[in-house]
Amino acid sequence: MSDIPADTSASLLTTLADEISSSATLLSSHIESRRLPWPSFSADGPRQPICEDNEEVSRARTALIEATRTLHALAVGPVETTKHFCLNEIYLLGAMQVLCHFEIPQNMRACIWLRHAEMLPAVSKLVDMVKRYPDSPEPQNTAFSLEFGDTFFGYKERYPENMVKFGQFVDAFSGGSSADSAESIARAYPWETLPNRALVVDVGGGIGHISAALAQAHPHLRFQVQDFEHLRGAAEELMESKGVKDRVEFVSHNFFDPQPEPARRAAVYFMRNIVHNWPDLYCQRILKPIAESMGPESRIVNCDIVLPEPNSVPKAQDAVTRALDLTMLSMFNAKERSFDRWKELFASADGRLEITDMVGKPRMRMDSLVEARLLC
Ligand SMILES: C[S@@+](CC[C@H](N)C(=O)[O-])C[C@H]1O[C@@H](n2cnc3c(N)ncnc32)[C@H](O)[C@@H]1O
């Protein structure tokens, strides 16, 4: 019910209804003039929201979502809302779990699967986690571990097919494919300003799909993808298929260890969706060896969510980032961070590390690119 503004006077109903009408009219004109498919409930209706790259249309869509949510909450009222939440929601989740068990959902399958097969059982242990490990800095002390008897990534190592589904979940959740996402990171940072043959180290880079896209878009750069040895085969296959194997090498490396000699003084240490998966103490252990290997021209480019200040973004978007924060807690005993928390974290890993700026925002994703350098 946090969406309901303090002023619930009678006029609010009609003010919201007017806003809904004007936003819907603007969206309709846009759809008509561009001959776009109309949003519909039919199985073959458009899957993506209406035009994200037109700012006026995008603003109208956000206003429509906000106003309809608020109007709905006002019309339903607190008692019925609570009743629906207590009854409908829980059986909706149960029914989806049954459907997932029999592999029936096709659309957004990996997204629905992760929510029901892993997140839901894990979140049911959140009370236990908070009671048992109130101040634990350890990544194994999680709701996930209480349910599955292992850390999130330990469990994925035992069941590699779940790691594949996890990758598909991340793609589905960010609204595209890993190729779309990698391609948008290739455009979101001024990679072209790096010197010829400069080395980019992709720390915890998985099979290297981001490095492969960056290498294709920026032929003057070299890459080293660092991750666990068992990913080497898939990584080398990917580089071969993308035609970049001469400039992208895979190196087996544990990111808690000192950087290997050839990766010292690299131009960029790039990390995407690494640091937010770890509690502070472990983030410091990841960042410290990187800081120690940086030269005066090196920088870290970190790609993770930067939590918006409260009430600074539309409520629907804010709700997603706060839910992701709770996901990090339940799965990893970790958290999402605001810009100030990111600054504190980097400085706490090595007093010379300073976040210079938020340097870009990949399209479609909630992540931002944050750049850190060594203070002279
Ligand atoms: C959420 S995935 C992100 C992968 C990749 N950066 C991306 O954006 O697609 C986290 C990655 O960290 C790797 N990882 C976890 N612990 C690691 C460690 N101690 N050393 C190196 N890599 C690790 C995992 O194997 C996985 O590839």
TrEMBL record:
<dbReference type="GO" id="GO:0044550">
    <property type="term" value="P:secondary metabolite biosynthetic process"/>
</dbReference>
<feature type="domain" description="O-methyltransferase C-terminal">
    <location>
        <begin position="142"/>
        <end position="349"/>
    </location>
</feature>
<dbReference type="GO" id="GO:0032259">
    <property type="term" value="P:methylation"/>
</dbReference>
<dbReference type="GO" id="GO:0008171">
    <property type="term" value="F:O-methyltransferase activity"/>
</dbReference>
<dbReference type="InterPro" id="IPR029063">
    <property type="entry name" value="SAM-dependent_MTases_sf"/>
</dbReference>
<keyword id="KW-0808">Transferase</keyword>
<keyword id="KW-0489">Methyltransferase</keyword>
<dbReference type="GO" id="GO:0008757">
    <property type="term" value="F:S-adenosylmethionine-dependent methyltransferase activity"/>
</dbReference>
<dbReference type="InterPro" id="IPR001077">
    <property type="entry name" value="COMT_C"/>
</dbReference>
<dbReference type="InterPro" id="IPR016461">
    <property type="entry name" value="COMT-like"/>
</dbReference>
<protein>
    <recommendedName>
        <fullName>O-methyltransferase C-terminal domain-containing protein</fullName>
    </recommendedName>
</protein>
<dbReference type="Pfam" id="PF00891">
    <property type="entry name" value="Methyltransf_2"/>
</dbReference>
<keyword id="KW-0949">S-adenosyl-L-methionine</keyword>
